[in-house]
Write a structure and sequence with these properties.
Layout (H helix, E strand, L loop, with lengths): L8 E6 L14 E5 L4 H10 L4 E4 L3 H9 L3 E6 L2 E2 L10 H5 L6 E5 L3 H8 L4 E5 L4 H9 L5 E5 L8 H16 L3 E2 L3 H13 L3 H4 L4 H8 L3 H7 L9 E4 L2 E4 L1
Parallel strand pairs: 1-8, 1-9, 2-7, 2-8, 3-6, 4-6
Antiparallel strand pairs: 4-5, 7-10, 10-11
Helix pairs in contact: 5-6, 6-7
The structure holds (2R)-3-sulfolactic acid.
The site of (2R)-3-sulfolactic acid has 12 residues, from loops.
Length: 243
Amino acid sequence: MGNVLDTRNRVEVCFTPEEYHNFKEEFDIVVVIDVLRATTAICTAISKGVKSIIPVRSIDEAKKYKSKGFLVGAERKGEIVEGFDFGNSPYTYINTDYADKEIVLTTTNGTKALDIAKNAETVLVGSLINIDSLNNLLSNKKSNVLCLCSGWQSKFNLEDTICAGAIVDFLISTGNFTSIEDSSIASKYLYLSAKDNYLGYLKSSSHRRRLINLNLNEDIKYCLTPNQTDVIPILKNGKIIKL
Ligand code: 3SL
């Protein structure tokens, strides 16, 4: 018998922004994930009516926007950078009404991943808080999907990988997608081990420890609580807006 052509689309996982160059040519849709906390904060902001978020990579760029009068959030190593309006907590957008505002944001890893992926045909913002809505949208696409984990300073992290695994698991279950990379298979199995208790599973993960040391336990709980919004942010022409 000859080879049967596999018409399924691919869903794969890239563990860090540094590995993105190995994947980028084959994927039309890139989902950028930074569960703790950048993409969760962005999903929250857009779901609370923020008009757009301009992600920038460096503090210098952020400063330029600040000097022009923009509202600017800046985080490095979990902390608010002095001189900016706020940091990277999703509660920023829950506790204060920034509806219809344009916000500039720079974070340690999340906005770097967004910058690296910016030339993909479609760049979506993923997190656990919008996971079902995102999965439903992706399952209707006839495109290869890459989950780009932001990681931590060029290293693998658990929370982004688990979120990516939730996407792989769901899309594979539709029968219309397949994965061939070990990173995707590993992500799926990590997700299956973690899905009943994200908080417990991530108890000793490096970034959870980092955030606990900064008294950010409420942020962690929020970021690890799935399906708090249906909103899917998309990066278009340098701005993140509601799809
Ligand atoms: O790395 C990032 O982009 C941030 O999400 C890190 S933090 O959660 O704000 O510490």
